[in-house]
Design brief:
The structure holds 3 protein chains of 3 kinds. Chain A is α/β, with parallel strands linked by helices. Helix content of chain A is 39%, strand content 20%. Classes of the chains: A alpha/beta, B mainly alpha, C alpha/beta.
Chain lengths: 282, 270, 281
């Protein structure tokens, strides 16, 4: 087990009512090799959860175990978590500040106290993983396109070689191609560098396609968690909580209501088309 | 943390002070500032303090709200006080250690200084707390209007101010986000010496400026798209009307000024 | 209502090379219609949008808004009154510190008299469902609410047409729904011409006509059902099609006979239900 949250709670004070994000007794754990999708409405506590996981804020109650050790009671949890859990914020391209792409990516590793040579080595490795060629190293990050900037920002986190990469709505503002490329890139990163990935999303389709496990938050509490199949098995509850389910799932549910019997956990058009084809031909 | 700053924020209410004309309040603020600056001696201090308390009471803004707004200036207040205590000169020494000595006069002047800073901040905060920024700027615009004869861009200045006020919360939120994002990259502004702290600010300020410029760009375009062409031929959504309560307030401030002048003249002559 | 004639627009980069953003684009948008312009990031769709009210002026060709050419300075004021624009970032288009004062901003610029202005501000806020929030400060609102305030600010000016430049790109699903419902209402109930720039196919599917842009050119221009049924073409352009449309397309390729436009779950379920029942008989 990499990281485990036990009964984690958090309360915000003096925030605008619509963003008074709070968490109530959230427990979940990320094992090696897993890709988790966290889903929920705005204000359901998703972002707070990512910040607690990465040690930016301390929970008001509960424990955060990193490799079995409770880090939430430490005076400065960042010192333990630093570099182990990498957090990519929403619109991470807004945090770029250095003159060159390479320098910006080196910022994280150099804060870990590594020497320059090691920083550059890691930065170059990170650039390769996010698909930025050598020629980008000397460019100013401000001259790049939106999608490229986002990749630089992500490289800036993975250059710290975190064991878990946590991303808050990594696809916000990207078009379909950008989104697909990003998830492909996350797949590469997971294979080569990070043990596990946790991403927050608004899109059920993204979670259905790219995550192994899903955590559904509703008003600060865990509504359900488990494998993608297990969660979409209960799609009625998801819809009752006002969350979208993938269109394919909706179609299969509708067909089942009409008296057919399809496995409603088929999530992709391809899988569903095969199943329907079977039935039509079989 | 940054959220606690209440300077420039508006506290929605319907009190007497809220309903006053902004021009009236600006003038009153100016008068108060002069009074506070020139205050000297126990009677003066008591007088301006009582006045300020009266204004707070009339505005019905909770005291805690104003105290919270003081947070960022505490450091300045304490700093000036300390300097005044040790640097001031006087005869009655109460405390002496090494080259430092504290005299009664210095202590009193330090107290006066502290009081003045606090009162100044309070009355200015009170103006922004009780006047919506748009109304405030239209008040400033009207007051500056006569200066247009000497080509002073009064509308533009007012517009700039109101936009600045509009974006304070947005940029504050953004600053917090960037701080967190850089902290996630191991940026540490809490620990370390002065130099390290300054260095730690660069990753915050560069993105904040970049974003502010981008916002300014987009806002300018959005304003043009809504037919903004500067001050000419514009009408106003909020009308400034001189009401009865303004006359009351005006007369009150006039009385205050007259009393002060007479009191000080008498003190001077004696 | 809007007309582009052979519009070409280039950006000159710092190195002096010209990057063509719009390449000889001609199109006409009818009064009262609801048109979606769909395309990848960088396809030129936002640049096109900014031509409709004279924010940008083409290097070659001409754009007419309500019959007025946008390259004539004297027309700009009237063009911008009649062709409103709502932008992507809800924060960066709200000028004032309260909701109602922001809605009034455009009217102040137009020089609308006091009583009329208050009437129009209230009407506009009611029509987007933000009247209860009129005294609120914008930064206390959600993204969807901010966008609705921006829309109210535009409709208070009584435009004939509104251009939406990716109005939902920065919103959550709830905000997206709110904004899309408002847009549909503007078109349906108030008869305002709508041009919606987007890269979400779900949103484009709600329009009457979809214009697909790629590399500065118009590559498709048809009813949504027709556009999305060419699944391969749309995918090749880097865009999504509705999942059910894709599913039906896969079945068609396998030799199943499905006809009609398959955009919505309901239609698709009914078509498949019929086929499955036929099979069972």
């Amino acid at each position: 087990m990499l990281i485990e949250l036990i009964d984690v709670s958090y309360t915000y004070e003096n925030k605008a009512p619509h963003e008074r994000r709070a968490l109530n007794n959230v427990s979940f754990k990320v094992e090696k090799g897993e890709v988790w999708g966290i889903i929920g409405h705005t204000g359901s506590g998703k972002s707070t959860l990512t910040e607690i996981m990465s040690g930016l804020i301390k929970p008001s109650g509960g424990e955060v175990l990193l490799h079995g050790e409770d880090v939430s009671k430490l005076k400065n949890p960042m010192s333990k978590i630093k570099g182990k859990v990498g957090l990519v914020f929403q619109y991470p391209e807004h945090q770029l500040f250095e003159e060159t792409v390479l320098k910006d990516i080196c910022f994280g590793p150099s804060n870990l106290g590594l020497d320059e040579e090691e920083c550059i080595k890691r930065a170059k490795e990170a650039m390769e993983l996010v698909g930025l060629g050598e020629e980008y190293a000397t460019l100013s990050p401000f001259e790049l396109s939106g999608g490229e900037k986002r990749r630089v920002a992500i490289a800036g986190i993975i250059a710290m070689r975190p064991e878990i990469l946590v991303l808050d709505e990594p696809t916000a503002g990207l078009d379909p191609v950008g989104r697909d490329m990003l998830f492909k890139m996350l797949g590469d990163i997971k294979g080569k560098l990070c043990e596990s990935i946790v991403f927050v999303s608004h899109s059920m389709d993204d979670v259905a396609l790219y995550a192994d496990k899903v955590l559904v938050l509703n008003e600060g509490s865990v509504l359900m968690q488990g494998s993608v199949k297990e969660v979409f098995e209960r799609s009625g509850e998801l819809e009752a909580a006002g969350l979208d389910v993938p269109q394919v799932t909706r179609l299969l549910i509708r067909l089942n209501e009409m008296g057919h019997s399809f496995d409603k956990t088929l999530l992709t058009p391809e899988a569903a088309a095969d199943a329907i084809y079977e039935r039509l031909k079989g | 943390m940054l959220r606690d700053i209440t300077i420039g924020q508006y506290y929605n209410g319907k009190s007497f002070v809220h309903s006053l004309d902004p021009r009236c309040k600006i003038i009153a603020l100016a008068v108060m500032m002069v009074l506070i600056f020139t205050a000297h001696g126990v009677v003066d201090y008591a007088f301006v303090t009582v006045l300020t308390c009266l204004f707070i009471a009339l505005s019905r803004v909770p005291l805690s709200y104003i105290v919270k707004g003081m947070k960022p200036v505490w450091l300045i207040v304490v700093f000036t006080a300390i300097i005044n205590i040790f640097m001031g000169s006087g005869e009655e020494v109460i405390f002496k250690a090494w080259v430092l000595s504290v005299t009664k006069e210095a202590l009193f002047s330090a107290f006066g200084m502290m009081l003045r800073v606090i009162l100044l901040v309070t009355v200015s905060t009170l103006l922004t707390l009780t006047t919506s920024p748009m109304v405030l700027t239209s008040g400033i615009e009207r007051l500056l209007k006569p200066l247009e004869k000497i080509k002073f861009p009064s509308h533009e200045v007012a517009m700039m101010m109101s936009i600045a006020l509009r974006f304070i919360p947005t940029l504050t939120e953004e600053a917090e986000k960037i701080m967190k994002a850089q902290a996630a990259r191991g940026n540490d502004i809490e620990g370390g010496g002065f130099l390290k702290k300054v260095k730690g600010m660069i990753p915050l300020f560069v993105p904040l400026f970049v974003s502010a410029f981008r916002r300014a760009d987009e806002l300018a375009m959005a304003m043009e798209c809504r037919c903004y062409q500067g001050g000419s031929n514009r009408t106003a959504f909020k009308r400034l009307e001189y009401k009865k309560c303004d006359t009351v307030a005006f007369l009150f401030m006039l009385t205050v000024v007259i009393i002060t002048v007479i009191y000080r003249m008498v003190g001077f002559l004696l | 209502m809007l007309k582009c004639e052979n519009v070409t627009f280039c950006y000159e980069s710092e190195e002096g090379e010209n990057r063509i953003i719009l390449d000889d684009v001609s199109l006409q948008i009818e009064k009262g219609s609801f048109v979606a312009v769909l395309g990848r990031n960088g396809s030129g769709k936002s640049t096109l949008a900014k031509h409709f009210n004279g924010v940008l002026v083409p290097q070659k060709g001409r754009v007419y808004a309500n019959g007025m050419p946008t390259d004539e300075e004297k027309n700009l004021f009237e063009i911008r009154r009649s062709v409103g624009m709502v932008f992507q970032n809800p924060d960066n288009q709200i000028v004032a510190t309260t909701v109602e004062e922001d809605v009034a901003f455009g009217l102040e610029n137009l020089g609308v008299p006091y009583e009329e202005m208050h009437k129009r501000v209230n009407e506009a806020l009611k029509s987007v469902g933000m009247y209860e929030y009129r005294h609120k400060e914008p930064h206390l609102l959600s993204g969807g609410q901010k966008q609705r305030v921006a829309i109210a600010g535009v409709i208070a000016m009584k435009p004939e047409c509104i251009i939406f430049d990716e109005p939902t790109a920065m919103l959550d699903p709830k905000g997206r729904k709110e904004v899309m419902e408002t847009i549909k209402k503007l078109n349906g109930e108030m008869g305002i011409t709508i041009v919606l720039i987007t890269h979400f196919m779900e949103e484009a599917a709600k329009s009457e006509r979809v214009i697909v842009m790629d590399k500065g050119k118009i590559v498709m221009d048809d009813k949504p059902g027709k556009v999305f049924s060419s699944v391969e073409e749309i995918t090749r352009l880097g865009l999504d099609v509705p999942a059910v449309t894709k599913l039906c397309n896969l079945l068609i390729k396998k030799g199943i006979d499905i006809r009609g436009e398959m955009l919505r779950t309901k239609e698709c379920a009914e078509a498949l239900d019929t086929l499955l029942r036929e099979r069972e008989c």
